[in-house]
Amino acid sequence: MNKKQxxxxxxxxxxxxxxxxxxxVPVKGVIRFLLYLIPYFVIGYDILRKAFKGIMNHQVFDxxxxxxxxxxxxxxxxxxxxxxxxxxxxxxxxxQIGELFQSYAVGKSRRNxxxxxxxxxxxxxxxxxxxxxxxxxxxxEIGSVIVVKPGEKVPIDGIIIDGSSTLNTSALTGExxxxxxxxxxxxxxxxxxxxxxxxxxxxxxxxxxxVSKILDLVENSSSKKSKSxxxxxxxxxxxxxxxxxxxxxxxxxxxxxRMLFMSASPEWATWxxxxxTFLVISCPCALVISIPLSxxxxxxxxxxxxxxxxxxxxxxxxxxTKYVVFDKTGTMTEGVFEVTxxxxxxxxxxxxxxxxxxxxxxxxxxxxxSLKKAYGREIDQTRVSDVEEISGHGIIAKVDxxxxxxxxxxxxxxxxxxxADSDKVGTIVHVAVNGKYxxxxxxxxxxxxxxxxxxxxxxxxxxxxxIMLTGDSKTVADSVAKELGIDEVYxxxxxxxxxxxxxxxxxxxxxKSKLAFVGDGINDAPVLSRADIGIAMGxxxxxxxxxxxxxxxxxxxxxxxxxxxxxxxxCLRIVYENTYFAIGxxxxxxxxxxxxxxxxxxxxxxxxxxxxxxxxxxxxxxxVHKL
Length: 627
Hints:
This protein is an alpha+beta fold. The chain is built from 20 helices and 22 strands. It has four domains: 3-114 and 223-295 and 570-622, no CATH class; 141-204, Calcium-transporting ATPase, cytoplasmic transduction domain A (Distorted Sandwich); 312-332 and 448-549, Rossmann fold (3-Layer(aba) Sandwich); 334-446, Calcium-transporting ATPase, cytoplasmic domain N. The chain is elongated.
């Protein structure tokens, strides 16, 4: 408990003790009234103050106003009737107990999420002239050398230049198995170094590093409200004034009708008491508190599994997903390309590979990297000039003054060159030198170990169609789709074609069904933005893809997509449970209160009891390990 909660607990104990003691004190009249005001003000002074401020600020209708009117009214009725002030104090007392419980529950869920996401580094050990100096991560520049000792968090993204170790990445990815890291590996901030000392050359500023972006996503997720949350806000806006006017009508109309039309006693005290009971019952705390808490807990539970959701609106959309569209490279495959064959025409194989590697030397595409790796020698980029990258086709450049073209069959067609067909499964890079076709290079990409399991899990979760879009050849695309069990595949697409295909799929689907796109590359950013829900691979994915996406998978594991969908559905199920339960109980108790069956004690249950049950149910969204 924090200081504020402890103070409230002391107030509750004092007020309860005074109420019990006064029950046995044989005093009547004004003295009894004044004595009972002591526990009432002890437990309710802050509610009365908030209600007064609300009235002064022209924001009258809230739960503080309802509690203040109900309890003050109950005291006035007791003053004019039998002098029993217990109910008024009990209403305020139990309301504050409910508020304390709610505050503790929300605080606990926030602490759980904070612990799960406790990845913010306190400092960075910067190496300056051979000595280590502790610095604020915000002040560390790109290219600085930092040292991470065993047990410390990696503060900034970078590349290991010395040392090897094992890393705990559970706070980032949800993966409990430590990962090995060695010299030359990229390392992301937020990991915990478990064993050896690492020297890291930073590649990003702290504000652009992984840990900073994750914290920003989690902290700002509550600003993007779901339709359910917006509905509750609008509902409370109209509901509270409606019940206040209804209570006023209940207090005035029946006595007036009895007097004017029935020639009976008006029984003002009875109807005012019923109206006050009606007000206590009507307090919308359970809805106003439990719905946002359910989404907050759902986002926290997803974070624990390495799935970052940027807002509760995306969690709600994800729960309605029926179509999942995948990019291939880096999403369903590892994006680790290897040259598995060079097939020459008249030129030597090594020369074909050399020309291709040099022409592609300025590109950061995985295929370009694989060509440079297969070439195996240091590339002299001064030999390369006039580089032109043709999106979806390949690259044209001059190498040692000679025209070189390296790309797919579309590039060869564009250059009006005849080329060799291949039935081999893999990415084909055709090479032309000085306007003559000189052969092709076969590059293969490995399918992710969990990709097949991911497709099976999605179908088991009720996904109607799985679709794959790729710029790769039809042979490769069909082979991968068949192996994974994907329902539809569209190949040889340019980045603009992918957007058009997603537009087409969106037009075909039903209005209630949502479409998710899963990608990782910079060319996926437009498609991620266009889909109903965009899911990016966070570990290997580009910054542009992560920025454009609504959900980020921190360990690039496609199995997490089905888990994210299950988490979202559980969260929405809890939201609906709380909504129906709270409104249902309220309506029943309001009817009972209006006809005089419900008293203040039942009113307390309808308010505080329902709120406690709804909050307990909401917290279940935080725990997703059994999904």
